[in-house]
Amino acid sequence: MLEPKKTKHRKFQRNRGAFYGKAQRGATLAFGSVGLKVVVSGEITARQLEAARRAMTHSVQRGGKIWIRVFPDIAVSRKAAEVPMGSGKGTPDHWSCIVKAGTMIFEMDGLSQDAAREALRLASHKLPLKTKVIARILR
């Protein structure tokens, strides 16, 4: 799974205000010819990204090229079950990334457009956010 090698701080304050608005960058196809774009803002965990990546790779039988355009770099902490209030912040539990509406999550190339669309459709079922498949217009 994806996670940073090293971070400046072990625990983060989560910027929930970042869930609103549209993506300023990373909203267009940059590498591949077909991509998966998020329609609504939200949070994606490293486990969800890995499940989507595995679904895509399995679908295309390791063919083509896949780019992951987001990286889970925010540590999400959790307190253990049945722990009383107080006594500080919980330990880091998992990694996640905040994606705004319009962010491109995955891109694919080196496949037929139908195969790439099907692989991205399967990947979208593993993600908690509403997505759509975007294809580059060939001229």
Task: Report on the architecture of this protein.
With 139 residues, the chain is of the alpha+beta class. The chain has a single domain, classed as Aldehyde Oxidoreductase, domain 3. It is built from 2 helices and 7 strands; from the N terminus they run ββαββββαβ. It has helices spanning 46-59, 113-124; strands at residues 34-38, 42-45, 65-68, 74-78, 91-99, 104-109, 131-135. The strands form 2 sheets. It has a 4-stranded antiparallel sheet, covered by helices on one side. A 3-stranded antiparallel sheet has the order 2-5-4. Helix 1 runs antiparallel to helix 2. The longest helix is centred in the middle third of the chain and has 14 residues, at 46-59. It is elongated and about 60 Å long. The model has no long low-confidence stretch (mean pLDDT 93).
Brief descriptors of the model:
alpha+beta; Aldehyde Oxidoreductase, domain 3; 3-stranded antiparallel β-sheet; 139 residues; 4-stranded antiparallel β-sheet; 19% helix; 2 helices; single chain
Helix content: 10-25%
The outline comes out as elongated
End-to-end CA span: 37 Å
pLDDT < 50 stretches: none
Structural class: alpha+beta
**Strand segment tally:** 7
Topology:
Layout: E1 34-38, E2 42-45, H1 46-59, E3 65-68, E4 74-78, E5 91-99, E6 104-109, H2 113-124, E7 131-135
Antiparallel strand pairs: 1-6, 1-7, 2-5, 3-6, 4-5
Offer a quick outline of the entry.
The protein has 139 residues and is of the alpha+beta class. The protein contains 2 helices and 7 strands.
